[in-house]
Amino acid sequence: MSDQLSLLKQRLGELADLGHALALASWDQHTMMPPRGAEARAESLATLTRISHDMFVDDETGRLLADAAAELEGADPDSDDARLIALVRRRWEKERRVPTELASESARAASLGQEAWVRARAESDFGSFAPYLEHNFELARRYVDCHLGRSEFERPYDVLLDDFEPGMRAAEVTRLFAELRDELVGLIAELSDQGAVDDAPVHARFPVDGQRLLVREVVSMMGFDESGWRIDDTVHPFATRIGVGDVRITTRWDQDFFPMGLYGAMHECGHGLYEAGLPSSLRRLPTGAAESLGLHESQSRLWENMVGRSRAFCSVLAPRIAALAGGELASLDAEALYRAVNLVRPGFIRVEADEATYALHVILRFELEQELIDGSLSVADLPEAWNARFRDYLGLEVTDDADGVLQDVHWSAGLIGYFPTYALGNLIAGQLWERAGAELGDLERDIADGRLGPLREWLGERVHRHGAKFRTSELLERELGATITVRPFVEYLRGKLGDVYELDLSRAS
Amino acid sequence: MSDQLSLLKQRLGELADLGHALALASWDQHTMMPPRGAEARAESLATLTRISHDMFVDDETGRLLADAAAELEGADPDSDDARLIALVRRRWEKERRVPTELASESARAASLGQEAWVRARAESDFGSFAPYLEHNFELARRYVDCHLGRSEFERPYDVLLDDFEPGMRAAEVTRLFAELRDELVGLIAELSDQGAVDDAPVHARFPVDGQRLLVREVVSMMGFDESGWRIDDTVHPFATRIGVGDVRITTRWDQDFFPMGLYGAMHECGHGLYEAGLPSSLRRLPTGAAESLGLHESQSRLWENMVGRSRAFCSVLAPRIAALAGGELASLDAEALYRAVNLVRPGFIRVEADEATYALHVILRFELEQELIDGSLSVADLPEAWNARFRDYLGLEVTDDADGVLQDVHWSAGLIGYFPTYALGNLIAGQLWERAGAELGDLERDIADGRLGPLREWLGERVHRHGAKFRTSELLERELGATITVRPFVEYLRGKLGDVYELDLSRAS
Description:
- By secondary structure, the first copy, chain A, is mainly alpha-helical.
- Chain A has 2 domains: about 5-150, no CATH class; about 175-500, Neurolysin, domain 3.
- Helix content of chain A is about 60%, strand content about 5%.
- Chain A contains 20 helices and 3 strands.
- In chain A, strands 1-3-2 form a 3-stranded mixed sheet.
- In chain A, helix 10 packs across helix 11 and helix 11 (about 295-305) crosses helix 16 (about 420-440).
- The longest helix of chain A has 29 residues, at about 5-30.
- Chain A is globular and about 65 Å long.
- The mean pLDDT of chain A is about 95.
- The interface between A and B is large, with 38 and 38 residues.
């Protein structure tokens, strides 16, 4: 390896080591930390973020980048090293415009904001949370201002979105979401007159100890490996990789609604499989990490919904649920489970939403956060705006902020521009699922046999092994020959819901 | 606050924030981390250590120290700020002599060494561990060499010991340990002809779930507070404070030997109370941390043994054990428990040793590590030397390295010069206990009533509130009017064991 490239990689490795400590501190805050530890944790996160930011934006990083690029002159532009330089240069150009003090203050505010959110949600008290939220949006606007005049960002919101979905722009999301919203609203209307699917099985009592055993079995089938993974309880489930060989997923439990624990764990395990499948040859390098949150979410949604809620996998789940839960579920059959877990019914909570209404929750947030950023909506008016839009999109009257505007952790943690990636993930999952079905001839039979390795390996080959070498749109072009599109997801959904509701929902297109 | 002092404190605060991340990474490694995460963890610890070391030893720290000292000219030498300057200057003078590369490599070696030790101990395979141990001692010798010629260190070992017990020297430890060893050997001989105390109760079956409930009750009495503490399982119990409001203790369990979980937890909770009692006015400053490990161990041993194994506290424990364990223990009475937990019998494992033999385990390690450092003993010859000395001091034949030289984590983690602090802690505990008994008239009755607050508050006043403002010897002089002495501990032990064995062990002195 060339000298300057080697020095650059050493510096990036040290940044990865700081990222390791930050990831651990964040995981711990959400799973283990006693409440009174929050203030000291916020200070530590702020300092580590500041040190990391300073080290990255240092002129020395720019010099190493330039020198390493010169050394690589003439190399294959798709090589690991050339891609690394391109990625790091983009990030360096973005991050060096951000003052250290702003980066550090954002980390501190995120940590304190989350604690405030936990308290506010518990008491459904938006007022106590509003100052923290106001501060987070103010910091986001200051962040946007650091990039004023850069032509690659068309709108202020693009600056934020780009951190979570590199290369994606609000205009493109708006276009995709308009198409998706029309499709979903139409589909939901077609279902709404139908006799309801019976979802009694998912509300039958299933003691949490038994659910834990079921989840252990399911994530093991998926590829959870005791020697390199953990699963823990938390309030707002997430997955993270602290470092190579250290993937951590979380879930939460409700004895009267087992899908929360089961599908929450499958979702996070899908994220974990992406993290575990990243190329170890690129360890401690930014290219050895996940590329975008949309791509990440495509993995979690694919495992949670396309596998987990399939007829084939329900035939695996039903006898195990029957055996572990007993009681009302003792004679659960696969078809009843399949219908119950695919009921479409608008509800208040995004993470509990069915596949047809889910994206509407996301679109609502995408719209509101753009308005909060451009100043056309104030934090004080947010609950009212939320409730009004909720009525429009989902036809429900929010009466409790804990089930409304306070339900998500994201804004409390300064994660603004993050939400759209959830629905983009659904779309990408639809595209991957369509292709996997075509290429893995026995996919359905494999799933019905609980044999999930072939699908995991296929996803590893198509997505995981690339790390962050390619932007999402480029990766999809290379692997699927298309950029993000709405059609495959909608066709998948119409196919499954037609089956569940015994309707012909397919369309001539 | 003066400008330069304020800048110095800001720098020290950032170092505390890095320390926070390091403490968390270490806690996690011993409680939560999946095994395959070890390599990435070692890299992260090494990088954070390097960054912390560089920031501390920087010339800027020296300049701030000098300027802040000038600003404080004429201030009370016992003031918080004057003491802070003195402490930081001592540490800076020591640490700046250590090359960054050595500090970083030591952190990395410690992390990898611990993983190697876990594997080696599981297989009782000293050979696989020897290269790691050799490397750790080599690094320790290089560390010692950084301080060659500094008159304050009389022997090479002093450099190491001073990191754990600031100001203490090997010559003083040798003198104290010679006196202590003679006392203990004499005492053990006096007991050895006596009919054995019946320790059947401690080996009766006590399901771990019940033990967990008992431990929760006991640590709550001591001052464990759910909002700012955690307790977890681990292989080698320890206590740590991640930050203010975040104290973490650990224990381990054996259903056929409940003192492991119970007294392990009381021991670590004693450490935790010290950490929790440190002055919050000195938060994020080195003076707001514990002063020495000997002082720390005095707290843990006092709670574990002087409280936990007292007749008074056995009267609290016995009915709860009887109720929670049932079975053979259902009719356990306080006197039987008191005798069983105070049996003196030489054994292989330090952390399971009774109060009379415990220090002999420590003295053996103190001698061996000095020989390993000065080169008179090689790592290859260590198991044999261990076994020979064990025969001499404890009269037992070690047949399995897992129960011999491989039993402790310390050397694997590069903690060389640490062991003597355990026995020094016993001595200090003896001094504090004697004084507490004199000053808290109702101590025994309070303990018998499970009322442990007065003792905790007394220790807070005498020890915890000082943080690291004073060196241990100075703190003892101020609070007890004496430096470390052997007599109170031996008198305490003779008093209790005379009671347990129904002998007159008191001596005219």
